Amino acid sequence: GVIPPTDVVVDPVAQTIDVPQGFDSVQLTQATLSLEITNAVDLPGSLSLQLSGNNGKVLNLAGTITRGSAGAPVLSIITDSSVADFLWPLPSSLSLSGTVSFGDGVTVGTLTGNDFIHARVAIEAPFELIVHQSTVRPDVSSQDLDSSAMANIADHVTNARLVYTLNNHLPFGASFSLLLNGDSATAYSSPEVTIDNLFITAAPVNGSGIVTSAASTGEQVVDLDSADIQVLRNPTLWIASQIILDSTGSQPVKLTGQD
Hints:
This protein is mostly beta strands and 259 residues long. The chain has helices at 147-156, 226-229, and strands at 6-16, 26-28, 32-39, 45-53, 58-65, 74-80, 93-102, 117-124, 128-131, 134-136, 141-144, 159-164, 167-168, 174-181, 193-200, 215-216, 220-225, 236-245, 253-254. It is built from two helices and 19 strands.
């Protein structure tokens, strides 16, 4: 029969985005949104949807839906290749809502109990981005110490050396701090020993901007004095680290699965 215009409200759908720590300050330079609608209803339709991020940005989506049938569903794809601005700052959650309309009061169609409509939203971005300076704080780790042996070292050792090597396979540099403490609750706020000014340059890239090999500091040495060594008197040594990613300014960089 002929179906009069009928609007169906789409129940809001929410999706959390898992942004890796430290990458919440990256800015995508390109991104494409694809809205795929599978229609098994013997009527053409249209939709008007709103995609909202908790970054305060809103993206409006509208388009037509090709008629299909329960036995031969038809896929309609609506794309928007200008959503990079919508994704800056990167949202940690998205919600989709709106209406879908079927019937125009003219077109003849048949409805069955097996009819359905299904939608899928995908956002794809080549991993080319602008990195703004940001801080990464990995989980604090611990090491149980032999109290007797460590007390003996703390009593008699007046200086020591920390030997380290940093390797970097990312197209931007970073600086590091190593924080040592006997209390996990104050590992970052009040460390007993802070070893900072450790840094690594960006890895070299080819003409396409892809990292070709790792940058390395080589073997480096940090001198520790007798006051630093006293941290070994703690029965448990809590080790925290802080990584500050260098900004790439307005210059986008490319990441690959090998970085």
